[in-house]
Every structure is written in C-alpha cells, then in structure tokens.
Amino acid sequence: MRGKRSKQYRKLMQQYGMTFGFREPFQVLLDAGIIQDAARFKMDLVGGLKRTLHGEVKPMITQCSIRHLYNDSSLDSALVDEAKTYERRRCNHHTLDKPLSTLECLSSVVDPKSSSTNKHRYVIASQDGEARAFMRKVVGVPLVYINRSVMIMEPMAEATEQVKEREERGKFRAGLKTKRGEQVGMKRKRDTEEDGANDGGAKARDGEDNNRGVSKGRKRGPKGPNPLSMKKPKRRPTGQAQATTSETNGSGDIDQQLEVGLKKKRKRKHKSTKDERLVADASGGEIAGGT
To answer: What is the pLDDT of residues 209-218, one digit of tens each?
Structure first.
C-alpha cells in the first residue's frame, strides 16, 4: 500500500471514529465473494484489513455467506474451514431453503429497522456492487473491496459526509455558545471586582484623609538622629572581655588585701612621760654647767 493512500485511509477512519464512534477492534462483515477473491489472488485477508483500516479487526461472516461457500462445489474445503474460524453473525436466515443474496442478508444485519443508521458500527467488506451501493445510503458505513489484488476503501459517502458536516457545525456552535457564556460570566465577575476595588480605594482614601487631619493637630517634638547615620559601637572579642574582667577582679582583690593589712597594723608605743622628764633634766644640767 502506498503511503499517500495509507494516509488517506487513516484520516478516513479517524473521521469515522470521531463522528460515529468506531473503535478497535473493528467489526468487519465479510461476504463469500471477498473471501473467494482473496484466495484467488493469494492475499492475506485479515492482514490486508488491518493495514487498510489501520487497527485490529474482528472478521465476521453471516450464515447466508457460509451457505454460499458450501454451495460452490469448485471451492477448496480449506477455504470453507478458514471461513468457519471467523465469528458467526446470526442473520436468522438458516431456516430458509435457500440462502438470501448478499444485499438482502447484509442489509438485514446492518440496518434491520430501515432507519439508515449503522447502529452496531460494522465495516462492510464485499465484492457485491449492489450491496455496496445500498450501504452508501446508510449513514456511517465504511466500505472495503478488492480490485486486482489491491484492497481499497471507498471514500465517505455523500449521506455520511452530510451528517458529519452537520455534527461538526453543531459542535462548533456549541463551543461558541459556551465560550460566549464564559466571557459574559468573566466580564460580570471582572465588573464586580472592579466595583469592589473602587469602593475599597474610596474607603482607604477617606481613612488616609482622616489620619492626615489627626496628625496635623499633633505637636511634633525635636527630631532624633538618623539611626542609619550613627556609628555602631564596636564589639570586643570574648577573650579580651574575659581578660579585662579578670584584671578588674584581680585589682579589686589586692585593694581589699591592703585595706585588711592596714587595719591589722599595730601602733607603736611611745616612751612614758617620766623618762622624758629625766632626759630633759639631764640635758638642762649639762647646759648650766657649761655656762
């Protein structure tokens, strides 16, 4: 599969997923014709479906398609055994003598109530042109077929494209409405906040005016020095502070000791007055004899 076509198929399946809710594993309804052509071209049917749909697939086959394979005597029994491994989708046509055509059987499974909707999100892989033409009228049905050993997925049908565009427009309008509502709500909230801010600013201005009136009536005293321009006191290290305290303590102890010594010092005893008189008389007699 070429890259450009693969990219287109991937985008197409993404659109089916976003609009109609398709998800993996994709339920693929097979008819007898596509099984026969895949065997004739020696193709891996399940692998080709995975590459085309860009995801895991769950192959399904109806009871009528199984009976078509049984009735074809030219087919190999191995092909019938391979078809039996696919999940059987009951179409409730097994009671009939002959199986219904691919168009009637697939239409009864995909759109049983003729409501033109793919309720169970089937992917139709069919080689029947009439069946594919009918499925294009049903909204949301991916169509796959084999053309010369190449598996091809048809572009989105016109009915499906219209529904997709309508839903996209509805989502776009809903988004605009929600955005407008949010903008209106934000605008109202902003207006209320601005009003509250204006009221708060007016009250603050009134309070400042009142404070100014009170401050004008007070008498101002002398201004002190600017604390930032004052010189900070120097801090002495802890070692020097301890030394100074020890020195002061030592000097104080010495003074106390001196005071105690002075207090305990004994006074000298002077000579008695009698001795002094004898000395004075002796000295007086010597003076008189000399003269």
So the answer is: 555 554 555 6
Give the separation between CA 286 and CA 280, rounded to whole angstroms. 10
126 in Cβ contact with 34 (< 8 Å): yes
Name the phi and psi angles at 23, rounded to 5.
-150, 160
How far is residue 9's CA from residue 54's CA, in Å, rounded to a whole number? Answer: 8
3-state SS of the chain is: CCHHHHHHHHHHHHHHHHHHCCCCCEEEEECHHHHHHHHHCCCCHHHHHHHHHCCCEEEEEEHHHHHHHHHCCCCCHHHHHHHHCCEEECCCCCCCCCCCCHHHHHHHHHCCCCCCECCCCEEEECCCHHHHHHHCCCECCCEEEEECCEEEECCCCHHHHHHHHHHHHHHHHHHHHHHHHHHHHHHHHHHHHHHHHHHHHHHHHHHHHHHHHHHHHCCCCCCCCCCCCCCCCCCCCHHHHHHHHHHHHHHHHHHHHHHHHHHHCCCCCCCCHHHHHHHHHHHHHHHHHHC
pTM above 0.90, yes or no: no
Residue 73 has pLDDT above 90, yes or no: no
Residue 30, beta-bridge partner list? 61, 125
> If pLDDT is split at 50, 70 and 90, which confidence band does 202 have?
low
